[in-house]
Protein backbone atom coordinates (compact mmCIF):
# COMPACT_ATOMS: atom_id res chain seq x y z
CA UNK A 1 0.00 0.00 0.00
CA UNK A 2 1.21 3.50 -0.80
CA UNK A 3 0.32 6.70 1.00
CA UNK A 4 0.93 10.33 0.17
CA UNK A 5 3.18 12.25 2.58
CA UNK A 6 4.76 15.70 2.72
CA UNK A 7 8.03 15.60 0.75
CA UNK A 8 9.05 19.26 0.77
CA UNK A 9 7.84 22.42 2.47
CA UNK A 10 8.89 26.05 2.24
CA UNK A 11 7.20 27.54 5.29
CA UNK A 12 5.99 31.15 5.37
CA UNK A 13 7.52 32.98 2.43
CA UNK A 14 6.39 36.37 1.17
CA UNK A 15 4.90 36.65 -2.30
CA UNK A 16 7.05 39.10 -4.27
CA UNK A 17 4.92 39.22 -7.40
CA UNK A 18 1.81 38.09 -9.24
CA UNK A 19 1.93 37.97 -13.06
CA UNK A 20 -1.49 37.26 -14.54
CA UNK A 21 -0.17 37.39 -18.11
CA UNK A 22 2.18 34.42 -17.70
CA UNK A 23 1.28 30.89 -18.81
CA UNK A 24 1.17 29.51 -15.26
CA UNK A 25 3.19 28.23 -12.31
CA UNK A 26 5.06 29.63 -9.32
CA UNK A 27 8.55 31.06 -9.71
CA UNK A 28 10.68 30.15 -6.68
CA UNK A 29 14.20 31.32 -5.82
CA UNK A 30 16.48 28.48 -6.97
CA UNK A 31 18.26 28.39 -3.58
CA UNK A 32 14.94 27.72 -1.85
CA UNK A 33 14.11 25.01 -4.38
CA UNK A 34 17.47 23.31 -3.77
CA UNK A 35 17.13 23.54 0.02
CA UNK A 36 13.62 22.05 -0.07
CA UNK A 37 14.49 19.41 -2.70
CA UNK A 38 11.98 20.74 -5.23
CA UNK A 39 12.64 20.34 -8.93
CA UNK A 40 11.46 22.42 -11.85
CA UNK A 41 8.07 21.26 -13.06
CA UNK A 42 7.18 19.56 -9.77
CA UNK A 43 3.56 19.87 -8.65
CA UNK A 44 3.19 22.00 -5.53
CA UNK A 45 0.33 23.00 -3.28
CA UNK A 46 0.12 26.64 -2.22
CA UNK A 47 -1.54 27.73 1.03
CA UNK A 48 -2.12 31.46 1.38
CA UNK A 49 -1.96 32.48 5.05
CA UNK A 50 -3.56 35.87 4.35
CA UNK A 51 -6.77 34.75 2.66
CA UNK A 52 -7.02 30.98 3.17
CA UNK A 53 -6.74 30.10 -0.54
CA UNK A 54 -5.38 26.64 -1.32
CA UNK A 55 -4.45 25.67 -4.87
CA UNK A 56 -2.00 23.64 -6.94
CA UNK A 57 0.47 24.61 -9.64
CA UNK A 58 4.02 23.67 -10.63
CA UNK A 59 7.43 25.10 -9.71
CA UNK A 60 9.83 26.94 -11.98
CA UNK A 61 13.26 28.25 -11.03
CA UNK A 62 13.79 31.89 -10.20
CA UNK A 63 17.13 33.62 -9.88
CA UNK A 64 19.29 32.11 -7.12
CA UNK A 65 19.33 34.12 -3.86
CA UNK A 66 16.83 36.61 -5.25
CA UNK A 67 14.08 35.83 -2.75
CA UNK A 68 11.64 35.68 -5.66
CA UNK A 69 8.24 34.07 -5.07
CA UNK A 70 5.97 34.97 -7.99
CA UNK A 71 2.60 33.40 -8.78
CA UNK A 72 1.95 33.30 -12.50
CA UNK A 73 -1.11 32.91 -14.69
CA UNK A 74 -4.52 32.28 -13.10
CA UNK A 75 -2.91 31.63 -9.70
CA UNK A 76 -1.95 35.32 -9.65
CA UNK A 77 -5.60 36.06 -8.84
CA UNK A 78 -5.33 34.11 -5.58
CA UNK A 79 -2.47 36.15 -4.05
CA UNK A 80 -1.18 39.67 -3.66
CA UNK A 81 2.41 40.82 -3.35
CA UNK A 82 3.21 40.74 0.36
CA UNK A 83 0.96 37.75 1.16
CA UNK A 84 2.59 35.01 3.23
CA UNK A 85 2.30 31.51 1.73
CA UNK A 86 3.40 27.95 2.39
CA UNK A 87 4.63 25.85 -0.54
CA UNK A 88 4.22 22.07 -0.15
CA UNK A 89 4.99 19.07 -2.34
CA UNK A 90 3.94 15.49 -1.66
CA UNK A 91 5.32 12.06 -2.53
CA UNK A 92 3.82 8.59 -2.74
CA UNK A 93 5.70 6.17 -0.51
CA UNK A 94 5.24 2.61 0.58
CA UNK A 95 3.51 2.57 3.96
CA UNK A 96 6.53 1.21 5.89
CA UNK A 97 8.95 3.64 4.19
CA UNK A 98 6.62 6.53 5.01
CA UNK A 99 6.92 5.76 8.74
CA UNK A 100 10.59 6.79 8.76
CA UNK A 101 10.68 9.30 5.89
CA UNK A 102 11.93 12.78 6.81
CA UNK A 103 10.72 15.63 4.58
CA UNK A 104 12.82 18.62 3.53
CA UNK A 105 11.49 21.55 5.59
CA UNK A 106 12.76 25.07 4.90
CA UNK A 107 12.08 28.09 7.10
CA UNK A 108 13.44 31.12 5.22
CA UNK A 109 13.58 34.65 6.56
CA UNK A 110 9.98 35.85 6.20
CA UNK A 111 11.06 39.38 5.28
CA UNK A 112 13.66 38.60 2.59
CA UNK A 113 12.71 35.00 1.65
CA UNK A 114 16.42 34.14 1.88
CA UNK A 115 17.79 31.14 3.74
CA UNK A 116 18.74 31.84 7.33
From TrEMBL:
Its EC number is 4.1.1.11. InterPro entries: Asp_de-COase-like_dom_sf, Asp_decarbox. CDD domains: Asp_decarbox. It comes from the Bacteria. It is an enzyme of class 4 (lyase). Its cofactor is pyruvate. The keyword NAD does not apply. It is found in: Cytoplasm. GO terms for cellular component: cytosol. The modification Pyruvic acid (Ser) is found at residue 25. Heterooctamer of four alpha and four beta subunits. This is Aspartate 1-decarboxylase.
Amino acid sequence: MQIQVVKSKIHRVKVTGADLNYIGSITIDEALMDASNLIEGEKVAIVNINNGERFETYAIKGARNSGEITLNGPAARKVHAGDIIIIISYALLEFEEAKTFKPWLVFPDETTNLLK
